[in-house]
Specification:
This protein is α+β, with helices and mostly antiparallel strands and 291 residues long. The chain folds into two domains: 5-118, 2,3-Dihydroxybiphenyl 1,2-Dioxygenase, domain 1 (Roll), CATH 3.10.180; 138-280, 2,3-Dihydroxybiphenyl 1,2-Dioxygenase, domain 1, CATH 3.10.180.10. Helix content is 19%, strand content 37%. It is built from five helices and 18 strands. The chain has helices at residues 16-27, 70-82, 92-97, 152-162, 212-223; strands spanning 5-13, 30-35, 38-42, 50-54, 59-66, 88-89, 102-107, 113-118, 144-148, 166-173, 176-182, 190-193, 201-209, 229-236, 242-247, 253-258, 271-273, 277-280. It has a ten-stranded mixed sheet, with helices on one face. The longest helix is centred in the first third of the chain and has 13 residues, at 70-82. It is globular, with a radius of gyration of 18 Å.
Length: 291
């Protein structure tokens, strides 16, 4: 699979102070660098996994998908252009300023910016979470993203076709369904659903920790008011993640979990589920789609 993992995300934020408190005090990320316009956050040996930028609006500005090298980056960029997508190729200086070796960008069928890159800088100093939290990254990248889309079929063609993801499974929601796709052993790195009542855009990012107690400690903080609860502690049916959902300072949600399922590509067979969770994940707002 040409895309290796979700390597980083760029977030537009109106309040960097709120983001620092949320990411460091609650989630356990480490500040890599900060100034009045930008906050870089680490969760492993990489220089950053979250790039929070001061802006007049709050949203996920870009998803950064990692590929192997320049040859693979050029190949994917050429394939996207041949399929009619407009690809912007950054020069070496621009990539180096982002601590990357190579970078191109493209918009998905709904206009969400994606960045394809290789060679995100590795730091000499070990990751040091202020809360002692260890994150599950490595081949699986920083986690996964879930996006509400206008129509599902263009995203099947884009992610399962042009970008080479593989189908993991589906979850049914009445007449609608969510599609889950993987590009490494993590059960899914990207998922999407076309639900008429849902606003188009990134609905949540997932961060996985290596210790169940880290989820428990964060859940205690959330119940004490550290962040607005979106859904309670529960376990998902398809990826078996034990997690909860909270609202980030930029409005999209963060899933914080433990114990996600891994895929053996040689033996995996996609299936369907009729509910997103085995237990828990009770929504605090009934107007929020249950995914």
């Amino acid at each position: 699979m040409p895309v290796r993992s979700l390597g980083y995300t760029v977030v537009s934020a109106t309040d960097l102070t709120a983001w620092k408190e949320f990411a460091v005090d609650l989630l356990g990320l480490q500040v890599a660098a900060q100034d009045p316009t930008r906050l870089l956050l680490r969760m492993d040996e990489k220089s950053y996994r979250l790039d929070i930028r001061k802006a007049d609006e709050d949203r996920v500005a870009s998803l950064g998908w990692e590929v192997a090298d320049q040859v693979e980056l050029d190949r994917i960029a050429d394939a996207l252009e041949a399929s009619g997508f407009v690809v912007k190729r950054s020069d070496r200086a621009t990539a180096r300023a982002r601590l990357l070796s190579g970078l191109v960008s493209v918009e998905d069928p709904d206009g969400q910016r994606l960045e394809l890159f290789y060679g995100l800088k590795t730091e000499r100093t070990p990751f040091a979470s202020p809360s002692g939290t260890r994150f599950v990254t490595g081949r699986g990248g920083l986690g996964h993203a879930f996006q509400f889309v206008a129509e599902s079929e263009p995203f099947e063609q884009f992610y399962l076709g042009a970008l080479g993801f593989r189908l993991s499974d589906y979850i049914e929601f009445g007449p609608s369904q969510a599609t889950f796709a993987h590009c490494n052993p993590r059960h899914h790195s990207f998922a999407w659903a076309a639900i008429p009542s849902a606003p188009v855009g990134i609905q949540h990012l997932m961060f996985e920790v290596a210790d169940l107690d880290a989820v428990g400690r964060a859940w205690d903080k959330v119940q004490d008011g550290a962040a607005p609860i979106v859904s309670t502690l529960g376990r998902h049916s398809n990826d078996e993640m034990l997690s909860f959902y909270i609202k980030s300072p930029s409005g999209f949600f963060v899933e914080y979990g433990f114990g996600g399922r891994l895929i053996d590509e040689a033996t995996w067979t996609p299936t369907r589920y009729d509910a997103p969770s085995v237990w828990g994940h009770k929504q605090t707002d009934p107007s929020i789609p249950d995914v």
